[in-house]
Amino acid sequence: MFVIGMYGPVVSGAEDGYEAHLVRTLERVQQSNIMAALRDAKGLVTKYSNSRLAQLVYADMLMAMIGNVDAFGGLHSRPPYHGRVNELREEALSRLRHRRGENPAYQGLVPANLLYLGDQRFAAVVDLGASRLYVYENVSGLPHLIRDYYVSMGVNGAGKNEEGDQRTPVGVYRVTSYLAGTELPDRYGPGAFPINYPNPWDRRHRRTGHGIWLHGSPSSTYSRAPRSSDGCVALSNPDFRNLEEYVQPHAGFPVIIAEDVEWVPADELTSRRGEALSLLDRWRRDWESLDTEKYLSHYSKSDFLGFGKDYKAWAKHKRRVNRGKTFVQVRFGVRGLYMYPGEKDVLSVELDQRYLSNNYEGRVHKQQYWRRGESGRWQIIHEGSG
Questions:
Q1: What is the average pLDDT score of the chain?
Q2: What's the Cα-to-Cα distance from 371 to each of 269, 301, 379, rounded to whole Å?
Q3: DSSP state string for 155-168
Q4: E strand or H helix at 382, and its extent?
């Protein structure tokens, strides 16, 4: 008898398409229904001829018919094939874990990172630990899951720090442009969406590197192993084409990349968002009060860096500026509030700010990072434009 081993329990509910077909085949294996599994595997290979995983499953089914296979990829588990088989095994396991009965995204939970999307209609959350990219729509201020895709990350995992480390960055990013596949080597598939790595937080931590993209796969393979890129997030080509429907590069499509996503109930997300918005409103009101010390209390004396100044230089600058003011009015639109992945209690804030006083008027797109200290108080540790 064929031992299914790694195939494990499978919960139904996958979307139509490649993954649903693959899971259905594995369900047949779990049921020891080898003939039905063989038919499904043959259909999978016929429809997705460039899927190496489908080819391996089909080969296993053929060999199972004569009793020569006792584990997934067992016939090819020795050199020189063992490395490739291990990669395919990891991909299969990753896809099997993503079942609606097991996945928090389908249990009424939402990513804690997506506090507030502002006027953004869509955003992506990449869960590197689950090899998954989720697309959320902003519905009445709350993130609503509309699509998800299997993805691959860097060969050496998550947490990019330097040029060439083949790791995928963790953080809050935005798509900056679109590159058509006709302008790129085949390895990137039908196109790519570059993101703004390194962002201000990365630069603060002296992280280096460039060219981090969301992109497709080579035409010779349907999808890549969970760890197979140089640091980018790679999708299958059909999934990349589908993702294109939601990404608006000119609007700064948000991409939150986490090693492990924190999932929370929607009402908890709403509560956390209210707390973050209250922080910003108190900061604004204290700024308008012209009580410089109260305003400066929102900035960390030990950790603040912004506009080329540490806290001491920033405080000196603001005290000098405020001496010439008879009134200050600050208005802003919040473009995004995100809990920063991979960091403890760090809030990423994007604002479109309008400043008006008796002797100056200006507008700026502002990026802030707030951190909650041991005392429980949130303070600004970075502020800059752009």
A1: 89
A2: 18, 12, 6
A3: TT-B---STT---B
A4: strand 378-385
Entry field: residues in the chain: 386
Structure tokens at 174: 């935005």
Q: Is the pLDDT of residue 83 over 80?
A: no
Q: Using pLDDT thresholds of 50, 70 and 90, give the confidence band for residue 11.
A: very low
Contact assessment for residue 236 and residue 217, using Cβ atoms and an 8 Å cutoff: yes
Distance CA 22, CA 334 (A): 43
Task: Give the global pTM.
Answer: 0.90
Contact call for residues 301 and 311 (beta carbons, < 8 A): yes
| pLDDT at residue 318 greater than cutoff 60 | yes
Instruction: Give the residue among 290, 267, 126 at the shortest CA–CA distance from 195.
Output: 126
The first and second tokens of residue 375, run together, are: 């005392």
Does 265 sit behind a cis peptide bond, omega within 30 degrees of 0 on the bond before it? Answer: no
Q: What's the distance, Cα to Cα, between the start and end of the chain in Å?
A: 62
CB half-sphere exposure, 303, CA atoms < 13 A: 17
Q: Omega into 254 within 30° of 0, i.e. cis?
A: no
Single out the residue of 281, 298, 354, 291 nearest to residue 325, CA to CA: 291
Distance CA 8, CA 305 (A): 50
State both tokens at 276. 């973050």
Please name which of 33, 39, 10, 35 lies closest in space to residue 23, comparing C-alpha atoms.
Answer: 10
Q: Tell me the one-letter amino acid at 380.
A: I
> What does the pLDDT average to over 182-192?
96
E strand segments, 38-158: 109-111, 114-116, 122-127, 132-139, 142-150, 153-154
Residue 340 DSSP symbol: P
